[in-house]
Amino acid sequence: xxxxxxxxxxxxxxxxxxxxxxxxxxxxxxxxxxxxxxxxxxxxxxxxxxxxxxxxxxxxxxxxxxxxxxxxxxxxxxxxxxxxxxxxxxxxxxxxxxxxxxxxxxxxxxxxxxxxxxxxxxxxxxxxxxxxxxxxxxxxxxxxxxxxxxxxxxxxxxxxxxxxxxxxxxxxxxxxxxxxxxxxxxxxxxxxxxxxxxxxxxxxxxxxxxxxxxxxxxxxxxxxxxxxxxxxxxxxxxxxxxxxxxxxxxxxxxxxxxxxxxxxxxxxx
Length: 269
Ligand SMILES: Nc1ncnc2c1ncn2[C@@H]1O[C@H](COP(=O)(O)OP(=O)(O)OP(=O)(O)O)[C@@H](O)[C@H]1O
Ligand SMILES: [Mg+2]
Ligand SMILES: [Zn+2]
Hints:
Blueprint: H1 4-12, E1 29-33, E2 36-40, H2 43-68, H3 92-103, H4 105-110, E3 114-118, H5 125-138, E4 143-147, H6 148-160, H7 166-175, E5 178-184, H8 191-207, E6 211-215, H9 220-226, H10 228-237, E7 238-242, H11 248-253
Parallel strand pairs: 3-6, 3-7, 4-5, 5-6
Antiparallel strand pairs: 1-2
Helix pairs in contact: 3-5, 7-8, 8-10, 9-10
The structure holds adenosine-5'-triphosphate, magnesium ion (MG) and zinc ion.
């Protein structure tokens, strides 16, 4: 970056000064980024300043996400959930579909492609949603895990607390690159909830930010629950993966699936 004095020298001198790095003439130019006007002197200086903007914005975004969700991340029970710790023989098709998604995680995130993991209780939907979220975070994307009821609870809290405003909360849900909404369909469905969920899903859809949803609702039941507008956006932007089989929790209690009761790495549910 050039100092002001070297700029003045450059301007006061009849001989043009040229940047030794990019070869462009050193002159005072004006740039604009997100409403901020700034001065730069040549192309490489411009690029350096833009890089600094991006770095600062990423750091601010990360801090915002961390501040808002310090106590609402992946639950401890699911900390050890990975693709490797998933017994694929219990749900081979779902496992393979999720694996394919993860193998191409960057392309999928860039295209805004998410997942809807649906099926009966205890079949590993949350386990694999967490595994995918960890992969996305590992690939450098910001990520958040929220259960649907918790999300609505936190949203309500923005009205009564003086901390986070509703708009800040919405922006976080919109802007986080990778969002998991766990257990959609279990909470009470009011008009207000419907409006908020639509706002989040639609904004993320528009921004090409992928959303992963886990739900017990399949097919028409899901469409009926979330309504046509949300369902259409999900069908357009997500891969639907159906989980089958019986509850791993029950099997674990009975000591099936090669586990002693309560001995699975993630503990008993
Ligand atoms: N195929 C599997 N291999 C290893 N562990 C599994 C498998 N399926 C489920 N589990 C474990 O069983 C427990 C229940 O799974 P999970 O919470 O992912 O089910 P779910 O489909 O999300 O159920 P629900 O619909 O009730 O939320 C978790 O501890 C999870 O790690
Ligand atoms: Mg679950
Ligand atoms: Zn230059």
